[in-house]
Amino acid sequence: MSSSLLLLLSLFFPSTLSVAVTAQSLALPSNSSTVYNILQEYNLPPGILPDTVKSFFVASNGYFVIDLYGECYVDFEYVVYYAPHVSGFLGYGSISNPEGVQIQSYLIWYGVSYIKVNLPYSDFVYIQFG
After folding, report:
1. Hey, what's the torsion of the CAs at 11, 17, 23, 28, to 10 degrees?
2. Splitting the chain (130 residues) into consecutive groups of 10 residues, what average pLDDT does each group show?
3. Which residues form the signal peptide (predicted)?
């Protein structure tokens, strides 16, 4: 029922779509690095980023820049694309204005505008796109 509701919403409101992804599909990458620890400090699951992080920078205002070894496609419940250069703003339980992240819905790629988790932490990550 919820997937048909999501489809219905996608037909009428494509600019305000959001997708719930279970946090269990966002497992900790095997080569844990400080960037994944920082995500946990912001109450975000470390697996929200691929395990191909080459370098990163986080400013005191939450602005971050992450360089990957190359572009990456991750198949959660939807396919998510990460460009070699990803940036945005970290907030407690959220990432706003991410650049370099897209999600595929029905063969169309959309830019991701917001990523959040419920607080207190739950098993779902919500991705707003469109």
Report:
1. 110
2. 33 42 40 75 89 93 96 92 98 96 95 91 83
3. 1-18
Cα–Cα distances in Å, from 127 out to 23, 59, 83?
A: 12, 23, 17
Give the containing element (helix H, strand E) for 4.
Answer: helix 2-12
Token output for 42: 């912001």
Are 88 and 97 contacting, i.e. CB atoms less than 8 angstroms apart? Answer: yes
Residue 17 CB contacts under 8 Å (≥ 6 apart), including other chains: 6, 9, 10, 105, 110, 128, 129, 130
Q: Are strands 72-75 and 79-91 parallel, antiparallel or unpaired?
A: antiparallel
Indicate the length of the chain as a whole number. Answer: 130
Fold of the domain spanning 2-129: at5g01610, DUF538 DOMAIN (2.30.240)
Alpha carbon distance 104, 80 (integer Å): 6
Neighbours of 59 (CB within 10 A): 10
